[in-house]
# Entry
Amino acid sequence: MELEKYSIGIGDRFGFEGAAQLRALQKAKKLGVQIVPVWNKSNREHSIIGTSPADTRREADQAVRSCAWKASYYVDADHIGLATVDRFLDSSNFFTIDVADYIGKPVGPDSAAAFITSMSRFRGTLNIPGMPTPLFVTDDILGDIARKYLHAVEEAARVYRHITQRNKADSFVTEVSVDEAASPQTPAELFFILAALAREGVPVQTIAPKFTGSFLKGVDYVGDVSQFAREFEDDLAVIAFAVKTFDLPRNLKLSVHSGSDKFSLYPIIRRAITKFDAGLHLKTAGTTWLEEVIGLAASNGDGLQLAKEVYSEAFKRYDELCKPYISVINIDRHRLPDPKQVGSWNAEEYVESLQHNQSCEKFNLHFRQLLHVGYKVAAEMNGRFTSLLQQCRVAIELNVTKNIFERHIQPLFL
Ligand SMILES: [Zn+2]
# Structure
């Protein structure tokens, strides 16, 4: 199973928007660009909402049927490890093996030594085509990389082999992610992580490093854009070289997590993947749920009322709701509007505060981030939330399709 050059991870917390998401990809297809969908949902999301991986599979199959989608599609067991992977084995054909927690864990002296010996041919100046500055490799540097990453790579291999005990090796796509690590990986580290994965026989098709800067959920990139641009191009050069050097899958590409709404990066990413003729997996961040809230609020009446209630409750339960996402959000509590004030807003005020339109002065990224992690509140409303979703179906689906197509696919791929 070989993942296509362009793919997009479309998380959908509540599982109602599969067809609307797919319509965005069909629009791209009509314009000549094939992007395949990957429905991703993590264990964290499943447990907060009370869904199972089988639900995601059902949603994907239904969306594909109802839209008559002819190309491939995938269901991603997102951010799994040995402890969580089993419940995903039947439903997934894409596994994102997250080993960020294993970075820096001790590694056996023998395996570190064997790794350094096997990499000794790269010692000295290492020129990587497409990279303006060569890498300089010493045993000390290799030792540092082994101490930092070898345990994590060995863990990825354990998870990969565990999956292959149940699922045929050619029946799924393997991603390895370290995007939730404490610090970004340098291009040199990425090169030797890929080397180590190849030595372990992990056929990695997408790799999600932690990039420089902050990738927060549902808001734009925070960081040095030109530094990101350099690092991203270097990573692409490293990947192309690693594929040839270590005989890794030829379609190996970068996976950009929390990739939705990174408007200031899309032109840079687009230029880079064009320059290197590279693929891309853009994993969005469950912002489809925010499009649902926008649709409810815009509908006025009960929908707006419910949207206000979700905010008011999320405001009260700030600590609880933010905790699972603490490393990927950055909310200034003083900039959050008072729920009483929000209670007096009309539909337009609510929508303008939430919709990611940076040129609108009402847009409030703190409000947006809190609602982003507030989906648990809606999940607890059970029938009330889902029946309103059905009532506002047409408007919501238009929002969902438009958000993916206009804000993400167009700047990145068209
Ligand atoms: Zn991630």
